[in-house]
Specification:
Chain lengths: 464, 464, 464, 464
């Protein structure tokens, strides 16, 4: 909950919970940080977590748990088949989405593997507002193609549209007609569109997408991993949602979409994932993949303790007190940076703040990797780890030439319920320092560049 | 540890640990049990765990944790990349196997998916002592073929050979030559061979297999999921191992094998899995599959808490006090049954006791599913759930005809550190009752028979 | 629950729970055990727990917790005043005893301190079936005297009376009349009378005691620390209780007694303690002692996590499946020993088995401390730690002469839900060995004999 | 750690840890808060915690635990005697204080009971910088008298002396001489003097007190419950301590003082308490009280899990990253309030912020209880619970007349590691609102006034 204070310069985000268990963090002296980032080849993925003060690499699987979740882990009913724990997960999913059928999987990408195996045929197309890395990987692995139909505002850093993750409905229809509905594997709606800054989709737009799908007889799939944040934005930015309960919104969506899947590393403050639906026959067609890739149908490759935690966490995903925490702390950080003049994607989305590094280092060409350079600089300046989301994260063209990213972003993810206002202020302060001293930052070049997944494993050094 | 008591009829298995946390079990009245098994279509997979007193369905993911494992879960370093927790797992694997390279995965079948994707080409063959269900599924999915070269004693219920999981080395060589080494994806050694009763492989045989592979230039792969039990049998049944430490045995194997993988739902008393090796280039060829199917390289789709538990559990896998518990309780159960005349696979293996249902119900033909019938009877008689490992677990031939299993077994798995001598005695008593009253048990017929995985989801009723 | 097996020599006690978390035990080699007991001056209190395989010193604070208790600890509402956790404890006590008023304390002896401070005036008398060490200490500290009126059968090792903890009602009345009701601080009924072997009191006798008290206008106090065991014996040994629920028994007692107190280290499988009553004014007279000695009224010196665990554990104290475990394992041990001819107190009580060391070492005089000698021997023989309950546990007379204990017992306490049948059999086996080799056991003499609490801190050596 | 930000109006306190587990808080609507405080008779002790957003009643037993503490709880060695857990506590105390002897007790007041029982004779005097409620209660209960010799600055709200808890050494000497050293039970140094606002004592002053005691042959006792905060102030306010490690300070004190005791509800972020010393014979004289009042010498009435947590927490008490958190958040709150003009005790101490209610409501006489009135107002204004530390907390004179408190304070305690900057800002904001609207606040009068401990149980209503 964010409260407007009686006597305060601006709105301050406020946790509606207290802290029960903490874990020590290290803030190395700057010379050690310099050493660490050099040892990591200027790649934040290769830093050791013990050398990091604020780990803002991702929001996935690193959220704080509640006391109720922690407690639930201890009552887990450890059984391969027919576990009470799985029954509790089923009840939780039913409560949150209203759906009858449930298939568990060990995390979001595992759901994507199964959906791709089941529905993506060679030559088919999966249409979506925007791709996500693992989603695309599985679709292309199965011979499909990904087409993105996000509204153009979604890609404009300057646009302050409240729902920059929205589909362009006209382009959606055109795309379906162009490929032919029979060649569309599915239309995927990504709530809280990850790669364009955690930008939400409006309820109106989601429902319209579902209608389009229905009209064309095309399957609609909701990636609900970031739905919790998205629902927060619906409630606070979309007039029709103001007086709906969060549960009404979840149910409305589930009623309209053919299939929903999610990573519980995000939704549910836990680990694991699941696919759910009202549609029995669709779900039956997915069923056999679960034991093959994941585990038996009543645990799906998850630790039964994690299932307990997710079952509790899903209820928490309905609670505005909990789901507002992330977006409001991000909003605070974005405002702090924006007020100071730091180029940052607006409006604030649901996953983290995103620095626009092309504007921070306008002189630096894509092939000197400005986002990676800022990532390294911010670690040196403050022991803060962000994630490069720019050209380094792309894969070279088959001819070896660089494929330049549309945006050179540094993502500063905000794990839910983990960092405090003090730490967010510290983060803002360190970014301001980097911004003020941006002329110290030079470009990077590869010293080791793996063929695949270079952003994970590659190493770079400063140019000159 | 099993001690020979001063004053006792026979050896009694003895836990070298005490109980810290317990969980209530229900023993329904017999009329409720009858109702429950009928509601489950006489399929023990479809029973609800709350209706079960002793769940002996599997030993996978249902082992009790130690206090140290439970504690470790709370110090988890929740980080996507570079987590200290993963470093601790790496150190544990290094300690246990001596291997340098480690790729995590969410459980054993996930490792198999990756190994199959990487190494099994259409038309290739994977040779092994015996198949395991998920192993075979991934190999055939990738277009490979499975060839089993277990020594013939392994399939003789009567044989009391101490290492019934051993390879027939001559057949192994012939098979390699027959297919040509270049068409052999790998030779897989399954420690504690699951589907033939958890029967161990001798150290001598394992090393000889590795030598054969080396000679032919074929990759050797050790499935170490049940290695803990297997090492116990090496120590107690194989002369050369008596004075070796458990660690020496693990290291010797790891030195000789090209790749080792395991399910931590068995090895390590936890959840998750991993692939490990001394061979950097082999491991690099697997690396990219981890982020695709599992999760980033430093968590591999596991809950970081589970990784902590496994890291501790792996050390426990070196401790004879812990690893003897399972085999010795199984041995006790097998001896009790054998002494009474119940047909049971001997010698006792490492996973559970296996009732030979063809001998229990000799009149009943395969297509009346004797193992399923005994499974249902034992649940009714004692609230005990075993797993059918007979014809129901097979898949029909393409022409719809039944494919009869070689053995009609009822597996009574023994989760590690979970049940006590009282409960094992209770189990033996209930089996004796079933044996004495076996003429009450009739055959079963399908009421719902799914096309695939019928043993998971199918339903049956009593004939006549 | 104990089941009569279909095919079994005798009844076997059976846990109605499974094991979730275990803790490693060490069984030192015999030469190390010898060294350890000598290092401890032949006093089992001075042994280090790491040197012990079975710690049967006491049942207090060493019981295994349930999964539900463990989970509850994590939802603790950590507040000094008005905590929800305390409200949950209040509801649990209300459910179990039906009582309205509740004062928490950090354990049983803390309740005794408060009751003594409030009610025992110099010159007053507290009448009870039998004293307990700390009870007596507080009463005498406050200037009171303890008078024991247990039925004579209670002190006869040979008697097989089912309720050897019963009051002799005539002696009770005589004692009240002799001292005058106005000089009776209270009559204390100790359920599961500890120092005479955990022997129960019948419901009939307890109610009769309450009636006597009522008639004379004397306050009745129930020490319910071992009530859980006692209720088990009422249900199984007393005809009128057979068809009563455990809750009916608890409520009936609470309705009749003026005050109930208990140690949650025994009742409730936790840590802590409490005083409860229907009588508001009595409780108000105790209230001010709580903040003085213990802590504020809504936590009473307990860890709030322990309060959660106790709140859950009290419900478990109503569950025959749980409360039968202790007595039935004790019963099994006693029968094993008795069948072999080892002198042991009968019938089996609720706290542990008690070896009659005067009969084991009939030649050894009290001042050579037969019970301590057997305790040391059993530790050497099996790494098992019992508690001397004989002359060593007495305090010398003011003139320095020994005060000989009525019984020279070695108590082998049975922590609840901790040890298994294997371990109980092991214990029996080791006792049998000691019995068969009793001529090896010599007497002990002091090397260091503290003035007070010599049984805690004193050291002895073998004579000759 | 507090960092001076690069771009920030003022210093912001910064946690050197992250959040692992959270617990939901409720912020009731204002009309419900009004109802709740009326239901509680305007006494914050009588509020239910579920109706409170920020519980700032006390810092005792409500501190967040670290992940290491939580983990340690699970490895507890549950043994009455000779537990490894107790050995770990012993090692921790040795590390922190360097002392050899250790007696455990269930919390701070239990130590005080024992010290009073052992050392306070009727007619004796205990001299201290300032009394604490329970300390005084035990001393007077044993017939002793408490004399306070705090430096006069300690009682001046306006004084900004950095060590307002210091002894006036001249008065100390005079007092000893006046009573005669033989009648001085002990001199007690309270670190972080609680009742005058958590004000620290300088190292120099503490050592000087010890010297005085030594010279007169009087026993010195350090109440180290708030020593962690006090050491932080020594390090940051006292020149000679700047380059000492925290451990050096702890050891220096322990070397000079005869006895140290502490509540682990404060020191060690846990529950429990202990007495420690270099002096064997002093400790032996206390030993027998432990089993009488607390529990056996190797657990002292604590839950063994709590002992594990304290053992870890004591090491954390050496870590400036952890021990700075409390004082710096308090400092921030005090500065916020002071800058706005709210009357608050300065300098900021170690336990919480203290509002000077006599200045907030200067018109309100003591017998209308201004501190209680402000406490009720703050709860209504923000769901925040403080503790009245004014006339309500005093006891009436024997003649029934009020005994007016020297200071009418509202204490806003800051549990360690529990609240965040957002919440501290919220708290400051609500206090500012109360300050600005102070003319709305009227006096209170009793509706139920208990004879003893009226501040705990009494009820009041608004006047007029």
């Amino acid at each position: 909950m964010a409260v407007k204070f009686y006597k305060s310069e601006n709105q301050v985000p406020l946790e509606m919970h207290k802290v029960r268990v903490v874990q020590k963090l290290n803030l190395l002296p700057v010379e050690k940080r310099l050493q660490a980032i050099q040892g990591a080849g200027n790649n934040t993925f290769l830093l050791q977590n013990k050398d990091i003060y604020m780990d803002m690499l991702t929001d996935s699987g690193v959220n704080a748990m509640s006391d109720e979740q922690t407690a639930a882990m201890f009552t887990a009913d450890d059984s391969y088949a027919g576990s009470e724990t799985f029954n509790r997960l089923r009840r939780a999913v039913k409560e949150v989405f209203g759906t009858e059928y449930l298939l568990p999987a060990h995390q979001g990408r595992a759901c994507e593997n199964i959906l791709a195996e089941a529905f993506v045929k060679p030559g088919s197309v999966a249409i979506m507002n925007f791709h996500f890395t693992t989603t695309k990987a599985h679709i292309t692995r199965c011979g499909g193609e990904v087409v993105e139909v996000v509204d153009s505002k979604g890609l404009q850093p300057q646009s302050d549209d409240p729902f920059k993750g929205n589909f362009n409905l006209d382009v959606l229809k055109e795309t379906i007609e162009q490929y032919g509905p029979e060649n569309v594997a599915f239309v995927r709606v990504e709530a809280g569109t990850n790669l364009i800054g955690g930008q939400p989709v409006s309820l109106e737009n989601m429902l319209a997408v579902a209608d389009v799908c229905h009209k064309y007889g095309v399957m609609s799939v909701l990636d609900a991993s970031l739905l919790q944040d998205n629902v927060y934005f619906m409630k606070t930015r979309e007039a029709q949602c103001k007086y709906m309960t969060t549960k009404q919104i979840y149910h409305l969506l589930a009623d309209k979409m053919d299939i929903i899947y999610f990573s519980s590393r995000k939704l549910g403050f836990g680990r694991g994932g699941a696919i759910t639906s009202h549609n029995e026959s669709l779900m039956k067609s997915l069923m056999e993949f679960i034991p093959l890739y994941e585990g038996f149908l009543t645990y799906g490759g998850m630790d039964v303790r994690s299932i307990e935690a997710v079952a509790v966490g899903l209820y928490e995903s309905l609670d505005m007190d909990y789901i507002s925490q992330g977006p409001e702390f991000i909003q605070y950080l974005v405002k702090e940076l924006d007020d100071y003049g730091v180029p940052v994607i607006k409006p604030a989305g649901g996953l983290g703040a995103h620095l626009n590094c092309s504007e921070i280092l306008p002189e630096l060409p894509h092939n000197q990797y400005p986002a990676a350079a800022v990532a390294a600089a911010l670690y040196i300046a403050g022991g803060i780890r962000g994630m490069e989301r720019g050209t380094v994260s792309e894969q070279r063209e088959p001819d070896g030439s660089e494929r330049y990213a549309e945006l050179e972003l540094l993502r500063l993810a905000m794990p839910r319920r983990v960092f405090t206002l003090s730490q967010v202020k510290y983060c803002a302060d360190r970014v301001k320092w980097v911004w003020d001293n941006r002329d110290l930052i030079g470009g990077l070049q590869w010293t080791e560049e793996p063929k695949v997944l270079r952003f994970f494993f590659g190493r770079m050094k400063e140019i000159g």
